[in-house]
Amino acid sequence: MRTASLAVLCLAVSLASAAPLLPGTSLENPALGTATPDFTNALPANYANYVLVATLVSPYTGAFAGSVTTNVWRDPIGSGGDDTLTFEYIFTNTTVGATVDIVSATIGDPTYPWLGYTIDAGADGSGTSTPTGVGIFWSDGDPNFILRDPTISGEGLTIQWMDGAFNGTLIRNPTNVSARVWFDTNATAYQTTNVGIQDTGLVASASGYAPKAANNELIPEPCSLALLGIGLAALARRRRKS
User: What whole-number percentage of the chain has pLDDT above 90?
Assistant: First the structure.
Protein backbone atom coordinates (compact mmCIF):
# COMPACT_ATOMS: atom_id res chain seq x y z
CA MET A 1 0.00 0.00 0.00
CA ARG A 2 2.81 2.42 0.87
CA THR A 3 4.49 1.64 -2.44
CA ALA A 4 1.32 2.36 -4.40
CA SER A 5 0.68 5.54 -2.39
CA LEU A 6 4.20 6.82 -3.07
CA ALA A 7 3.82 6.12 -6.77
CA VAL A 8 0.50 7.99 -6.88
CA LEU A 9 1.97 10.89 -4.90
CA CYS A 10 4.97 11.16 -7.20
CA LEU A 11 2.73 11.07 -10.26
CA ALA A 12 0.56 13.85 -8.79
CA VAL A 13 3.59 15.99 -8.00
CA SER A 14 5.00 15.34 -11.47
CA LEU A 15 1.76 16.39 -13.14
CA ALA A 16 1.37 19.43 -10.90
CA SER A 17 4.88 20.66 -11.69
CA ALA A 18 4.90 19.75 -15.39
CA ALA A 19 6.01 22.56 -17.68
CA PRO A 20 3.32 24.07 -19.88
CA LEU A 21 5.88 24.86 -22.60
CA LEU A 22 6.56 21.47 -24.19
CA PRO A 23 8.83 20.94 -27.22
CA GLY A 24 7.18 22.22 -30.39
CA THR A 25 4.40 24.09 -28.56
CA SER A 26 3.70 27.75 -27.89
CA LEU A 27 2.07 29.89 -25.22
CA GLU A 28 -0.07 32.85 -26.32
CA ASN A 29 -0.47 36.30 -24.80
CA PRO A 30 -3.56 36.23 -22.54
CA ALA A 31 -4.90 39.37 -24.28
CA LEU A 32 -5.55 37.36 -27.44
CA GLY A 33 -8.34 35.35 -25.84
CA THR A 34 -7.60 32.26 -27.91
CA ALA A 35 -8.13 28.64 -26.99
CA THR A 36 -4.38 27.95 -26.91
CA PRO A 37 -2.67 27.86 -23.51
CA ASP A 38 -1.76 31.36 -22.33
CA PHE A 39 1.50 32.40 -20.75
CA THR A 40 1.34 34.18 -17.43
CA ASN A 41 1.82 37.91 -16.92
CA ALA A 42 3.03 37.21 -13.39
CA LEU A 43 6.60 36.46 -12.40
CA PRO A 44 7.41 32.93 -11.20
CA ALA A 45 6.45 31.85 -7.71
CA ASN A 46 9.04 32.76 -5.05
CA TYR A 47 10.55 35.33 -7.45
CA ALA A 48 10.98 37.88 -4.67
CA ASN A 49 13.42 35.48 -2.97
CA TYR A 50 15.47 34.66 -6.08
CA VAL A 51 19.19 35.42 -6.02
CA LEU A 52 20.81 37.04 -9.07
CA VAL A 53 23.53 34.67 -10.31
CA ALA A 54 24.76 36.41 -13.46
CA THR A 55 23.98 39.25 -15.86
CA LEU A 56 25.09 39.54 -19.48
CA VAL A 57 24.46 42.65 -21.58
CA SER A 58 25.19 41.77 -25.21
CA PRO A 59 25.00 44.42 -27.97
CA TYR A 60 23.48 43.38 -31.29
CA THR A 61 25.68 42.81 -34.32
CA GLY A 62 23.87 43.38 -37.61
CA ALA A 63 20.87 45.37 -38.78
CA PHE A 64 19.73 46.58 -35.35
CA ALA A 65 21.30 48.67 -32.61
CA GLY A 66 20.54 47.87 -29.01
CA SER A 67 21.21 44.94 -26.72
CA VAL A 68 19.74 41.92 -25.03
CA THR A 69 20.21 41.64 -21.28
CA THR A 70 20.12 38.18 -19.72
CA ASN A 71 19.62 37.84 -15.99
CA VAL A 72 20.06 34.39 -14.44
CA TRP A 73 18.24 33.92 -11.15
CA ARG A 74 18.51 31.04 -8.68
CA ASP A 75 15.65 29.89 -6.47
CA PRO A 76 17.60 29.36 -3.23
CA ILE A 77 16.98 26.32 -1.07
CA GLY A 78 17.30 28.46 2.07
CA SER A 79 14.22 30.45 1.04
CA GLY A 80 12.10 27.44 0.29
CA GLY A 81 13.30 27.04 -3.30
CA ASP A 82 14.87 24.13 -5.14
CA ASP A 83 18.18 25.66 -6.34
CA THR A 84 17.01 25.81 -9.98
CA LEU A 85 17.52 28.65 -12.48
CA THR A 86 15.23 31.15 -14.16
CA PHE A 87 16.44 32.93 -17.32
CA GLU A 88 15.16 36.45 -17.93
CA TYR A 89 15.62 38.39 -21.20
CA ILE A 90 15.12 42.10 -21.94
CA PHE A 91 15.47 43.45 -25.49
CA THR A 92 16.04 47.07 -26.52
CA ASN A 93 15.94 48.76 -29.92
CA THR A 94 18.03 51.93 -30.20
CA THR A 95 18.56 51.90 -33.97
CA VAL A 96 19.05 55.41 -35.36
CA GLY A 97 17.34 56.49 -38.59
CA ALA A 98 14.40 55.06 -40.47
CA THR A 99 11.80 53.19 -38.43
CA VAL A 100 12.74 49.56 -37.81
CA ASP A 101 10.99 47.03 -35.59
CA ILE A 102 12.12 43.95 -33.74
CA VAL A 103 9.38 41.43 -34.39
CA SER A 104 10.95 38.23 -33.06
CA ALA A 105 13.95 36.83 -31.21
CA THR A 106 15.35 33.30 -31.03
CA ILE A 107 17.45 31.77 -28.27
CA GLY A 108 19.41 28.59 -28.94
CA ASP A 109 22.31 27.01 -30.80
CA PRO A 110 23.53 23.54 -31.88
CA THR A 111 24.28 22.53 -28.29
CA TYR A 112 20.49 22.17 -27.77
CA PRO A 113 20.54 24.16 -24.51
CA TRP A 114 16.82 23.79 -23.77
CA LEU A 115 16.44 20.13 -24.71
CA GLY A 116 15.33 17.88 -21.87
CA TYR A 117 14.64 20.67 -19.41
CA THR A 118 11.33 21.56 -17.85
CA ILE A 119 10.27 25.08 -18.87
CA ASP A 120 7.58 27.45 -17.62
CA ALA A 121 7.36 30.81 -19.38
CA GLY A 122 5.87 34.26 -19.20
CA ALA A 123 6.47 38.01 -19.34
CA ASP A 124 5.73 40.69 -16.78
CA GLY A 125 4.31 43.58 -18.86
CA SER A 126 7.08 45.95 -17.69
CA GLY A 127 8.20 47.16 -21.15
CA THR A 128 7.35 50.00 -23.50
CA SER A 129 6.50 48.89 -27.04
CA THR A 130 4.59 50.15 -30.07
CA PRO A 131 1.08 48.74 -30.68
CA THR A 132 0.60 47.24 -34.14
CA GLY A 133 -2.64 49.18 -34.52
CA VAL A 134 -4.37 46.23 -36.22
CA GLY A 135 -6.42 43.49 -34.58
CA ILE A 136 -5.53 42.97 -30.91
CA PHE A 137 -2.57 44.99 -29.68
CA TRP A 138 -0.84 46.26 -26.55
CA SER A 139 2.10 48.46 -25.51
CA ASP A 140 3.61 46.76 -22.44
CA GLY A 141 6.40 44.91 -24.28
CA ASP A 142 4.89 41.45 -23.74
CA PRO A 143 5.26 38.96 -26.62
CA ASN A 144 2.39 37.80 -28.78
CA PHE A 145 3.51 34.23 -28.19
CA ILE A 146 6.45 32.20 -26.89
CA LEU A 147 7.39 29.06 -28.85
CA ARG A 148 9.58 26.16 -27.81
CA ASP A 149 11.03 25.58 -31.25
CA PRO A 150 13.02 22.53 -32.39
CA THR A 151 15.04 23.75 -35.39
CA ILE A 152 17.71 22.33 -37.67
CA SER A 153 20.35 24.26 -35.75
CA GLY A 154 19.25 23.03 -32.33
CA GLU A 155 16.21 23.25 -30.08
CA GLY A 156 15.57 26.88 -29.26
CA LEU A 157 12.99 29.33 -28.04
CA THR A 158 11.22 31.90 -30.21
CA ILE A 159 9.79 35.10 -28.75
CA GLN A 160 7.34 36.63 -31.25
CA TRP A 161 5.92 40.10 -30.61
CA MET A 162 3.62 40.22 -33.67
CA ASP A 163 1.80 37.39 -35.45
CA GLY A 164 0.91 36.97 -39.12
CA ALA A 165 -2.45 38.69 -38.59
CA PHE A 166 -0.69 41.78 -37.16
CA ASN A 167 -1.90 41.12 -33.62
CA GLY A 168 0.52 42.15 -30.91
CA THR A 169 3.18 44.79 -30.51
CA LEU A 170 6.58 45.88 -31.87
CA ILE A 171 9.93 46.69 -30.28
CA ARG A 172 10.43 49.86 -32.33
CA ASN A 173 13.39 52.21 -32.41
CA PRO A 174 14.67 54.38 -30.91
CA THR A 175 13.31 53.92 -27.37
CA ASN A 176 11.25 50.73 -27.09
CA VAL A 177 12.21 48.04 -24.60
CA SER A 178 10.61 44.65 -24.13
CA ALA A 179 9.04 43.34 -20.98
CA ARG A 180 11.05 40.89 -18.91
CA VAL A 181 10.49 37.61 -20.73
CA TRP A 182 11.30 34.72 -18.40
CA PHE A 183 11.81 30.96 -18.58
CA ASP A 184 11.64 29.13 -15.26
CA THR A 185 13.54 25.83 -15.57
CA ASN A 186 14.79 22.82 -13.63
CA ALA A 187 18.35 23.56 -14.80
CA THR A 188 21.04 24.18 -12.19
CA ALA A 189 23.86 25.44 -14.46
CA TYR A 190 24.09 27.85 -17.38
CA GLN A 191 26.15 28.57 -20.50
CA THR A 192 26.25 31.18 -23.26
CA THR A 193 24.14 30.67 -26.36
CA ASN A 194 23.19 32.49 -29.56
CA VAL A 195 20.42 35.08 -29.66
CA GLY A 196 18.94 36.13 -33.00
CA ILE A 197 16.92 39.29 -33.65
CA GLN A 198 14.64 39.50 -36.69
CA ASP A 199 12.25 41.48 -38.79
CA THR A 200 11.47 40.77 -42.44
CA GLY A 201 14.85 40.97 -44.19
CA LEU A 202 16.57 42.47 -41.14
CA VAL A 203 18.60 40.31 -38.77
CA ALA A 204 21.08 40.75 -35.96
CA SER A 205 22.77 38.50 -33.43
CA ALA A 206 23.91 38.65 -29.84
CA SER A 207 24.77 36.34 -26.95
CA GLY A 208 22.77 35.31 -23.93
CA TYR A 209 22.67 32.71 -21.19
CA ALA A 210 20.68 29.46 -21.36
CA PRO A 211 20.69 26.14 -19.49
CA LYS A 212 23.95 24.25 -19.68
CA ALA A 213 23.64 21.37 -22.13
CA ALA A 214 25.89 18.66 -20.68
CA ASN A 215 25.16 15.89 -23.22
CA ASN A 216 21.50 16.56 -22.38
CA GLU A 217 21.86 14.24 -19.39
CA LEU A 218 19.80 15.47 -16.46
CA ILE A 219 19.87 14.33 -12.85
CA PRO A 220 16.57 12.47 -12.19
CA GLU A 221 14.07 14.32 -10.03
CA PRO A 222 13.47 12.92 -6.51
CA CYS A 223 10.22 11.27 -7.58
CA SER A 224 11.93 9.62 -10.52
CA LEU A 225 14.55 8.21 -8.17
CA ALA A 226 11.85 7.06 -5.76
CA LEU A 227 9.90 5.30 -8.50
CA LEU A 228 13.12 3.71 -9.77
CA GLY A 229 13.76 2.44 -6.26
CA ILE A 230 10.25 0.99 -6.09
CA GLY A 231 10.83 -0.83 -9.38
CA LEU A 232 14.16 -2.25 -8.25
CA ALA A 233 12.68 -3.37 -4.95
CA ALA A 234 9.82 -5.14 -6.73
CA LEU A 235 12.29 -6.83 -9.07
CA ALA A 236 14.38 -8.01 -6.12
CA ARG A 237 11.28 -9.48 -4.44
CA ARG A 238 10.34 -11.36 -7.61
CA ARG A 239 13.87 -12.79 -7.86
CA ARG A 240 13.79 -13.95 -4.23
CA LYS A 241 10.46 -15.71 -4.77
CA SER A 242 11.75 -17.50 -7.85
Answer: 66
Residues spanned by the domain of 100: 21-229
Number of domains in the chain: 1
Q: Can you name the residues that pair with 126 across neighbouring β-strands?
A: none
Examine residue 1 and state whether it is found in any structural domain, yes or no: no
Look at residue 164 and tell me if it is in a domain: yes
Establish if 11 belongs to a structural domain. Answer: no
56 pLDDT more than 60: yes
pLDDT given for residue 152 in this prediction: 62
Task: Specify if 241 maps to a domain.
Answer: no
